[in-house]
Amino acid sequence: MTATTTEPTVADAIETRVVSHLHPEGSFDPADHAVPKGLEEIWRFTPLKRMRGLHSDAVLDNRDHKVEVDAAPEVRTETVGTNDPSRGSSHYVPVDRVSARAWAAADQVLKVVVPAEVVASTPTTITLHGTGTESAGAGHLVIEAEPFSQATVVVDYVGSATWAENVEIVLGDGAQLTVVAVQDWDDDAVHVAHHHALVGRDAHLKHVVVTFGGDLVRINSSVEYAGTGGEVDMLGLYFADAGQHLEHRLFVDHNNPKGRSKVDYKGALQGESAHTVWIGDVLIRKEGVGIETYESNDNLVLTDGARADSVPNLEIETGEIEGAGHASTTGRFDDMHLFYLQSRGIPEVEARRLVVHGFFNDIIRRIGVSEIQDRLLETVERELAKHVGVAESVAAEQR
């Protein structure tokens, strides 16, 4: 017997339809989304030829991966069918072809539930191991934090894969939830995902995206509010090496009063053809009176041949707000910082290392998960070692 699935319809979401030109109208049917050509606003930065057909017609047969779950004792996890009512509970409707294809192709849903008023004693960790790139896969993850609960969920991606997925995050009233997604893939992985969060009244979400591995990684993250007083912190950290394309696109929809959002992403690039893309957009609707929002993105270019694209956007439909702003910077090392450190006897290579650590440290310490923070510091150190090796080789050639 084949189970039937009742999906939320576009009509159900009509009242919260995004009016931004940056966000096409959503649909669950992949046929409603044209195969992108690269000229569209939402695809113009993405190298479509490297996506292995995720955006067009690649078969998503879900063979080359395995999932491990290490849940906190207070947290419930289960695998359910695609007709489970939790799917679609975030009010998300796919806004691009990859997301719609992943929604249609996922054959099950991994569901994580933090019961009401529970304070989880340890983080819940979900690890997806990619075991090959010969076939592509699609996943669906739902994380529910019931009212007045507190928890941390870490989603870790490792190995080799061609992977598309949707992640839904739902916070009940007064819930406090931290979600950390770590893209630590092998160099040949392709990963395209959409994370969508629905934040309840007076709830607080900390959403963290960390991207180091993969050949091409594109993560879309979006947020809307289910009541007044919701708060969201969206933090990101990425480090691109030669040939990598790392793309992060964010959208905050202030559709309720007295909400708050803070977006802060930082990235470093090194090596020929390393490319990062950050697109941020905040929409403040007429209903979003009394909100406060700020988005920022900073990029540190370590070598020639690397490119960072950064585009912050603000769309404001009411003047009755507490504050709104955005900032974006892209540059090389601060020569004054290097001069200051070298004048105190610190060698140039070590001075550069200290500057990069200082650049990332603010984001790392705000993640709030000690195991992840320690791991990220080690990863940054490994990435810097690659840069130091290149720099020393160049210096030797010049001598």
From TrEMBL:
Domain of life: Bacteria
Record-linked Pfam families: SUFBD_core (PF01458)
InterPro entries in alphabetical order: Fe-S_cluster_assembly_SufBD, SUF_FeS_clus_asmbl_SufBD_core, SUF_FeS_clus_asmbl_SufBD_sf, SUF_FeS_clus_asmbl_SufD
All copies of domain SUF system FeS cluster assembly SufBD core, residue ranges: 133-359
Biological processes per GO annotation: iron-sulfur cluster assembly
Family per similarity comment: Belongs to the iron-sulfur cluster assembly SufBD family.
Protein name: Fe-S cluster assembly protein SufD
